[in-house]
Design goal:
57% helix, 6 helices, 2 domains, three-stranded antiparallel sheet, 3 strands, alpha+beta
Length: 183
């Protein structure tokens, strides 16, 4: 008779473990259903983007970029400044970043005009202004604009002359100062 109570205690312990696992399973199922319901509700209730925005988002989707190509403009630029009766100098090495290999031919062909525009830009700058980070960033942006404008002007001239096979819509992405010495 003593053996019967032990069997009842073992089955009671086994039954409480089953109930515990059942409760944990129900709790996990409720959490999963809650998360799923929230995701579905957010998708249903979120406003759809207007057709124009959806097309623009697809158009600006990340695309694979071609490898960067660097073109070092040689020789370096050396500019004289007269600051308070003293001669000051700027020596800058400029490298261009672009991705279309066809652009290199245009850069080489029109380099004298590009260099002229950059020399005019550099020599018109204030020496003290160029010593600040903001002055250098402004110079980079203005140099990029000069290069892009010169290339665009020359590409339009090529298109007008009927040599459209050499016209490229590619452009320089960045102007990089690889050396910038002021003294």
């Amino acid at each position: 008779m003593a053996a019967a109570p032990k069997a009842d205690a073992g089955s009671a312990e086994s039954g409480s473990k089953k109930k515990l696992f059942l409760m944990i399973g129900i709790a996990v199922a409720l959490i999963v259903i809650s998360i799923g319901g929230t995701v579905v509700a957010l998708k249903i209730l979120s406003p759809a983007p207007p057709a124009g925005e959806a097309a623009a988002a697809e158009q600006h989707a990340p695309t694979t970029l071609a490898p960067a190509i660097y073109y070092a403009m040689t020789p370096n630029f050396t500019i004289n400044f007269n600051v308070n009766g003293r001669q000051r100098y700027l020596q800058a090495a400029i490298t261009l970043l672009y991705r279309d290999p066809l652009l290199e031919e245009l850069l080489k062909l029109h380099m004298p005009a590009i260099r002229n525009g950059l020399v005019m830009l550099l020599s018109a700058k204030n020496f003290d202004e160029l010593q600040t980070t903001e002055g250098k960033e402004t110079l980079r942006a203005e140099a990029l604009e000069i290069i892009r404008n010169q290339l665009q002007k020359e590409q339009e001239a090529l298109a007008a002359s009927g040599k459209a096979d050499k016209v490229s819509s590619a452009n320089v992405e960045q102007v990089l100062f690889t050396t910038f010495v002021m003294q």
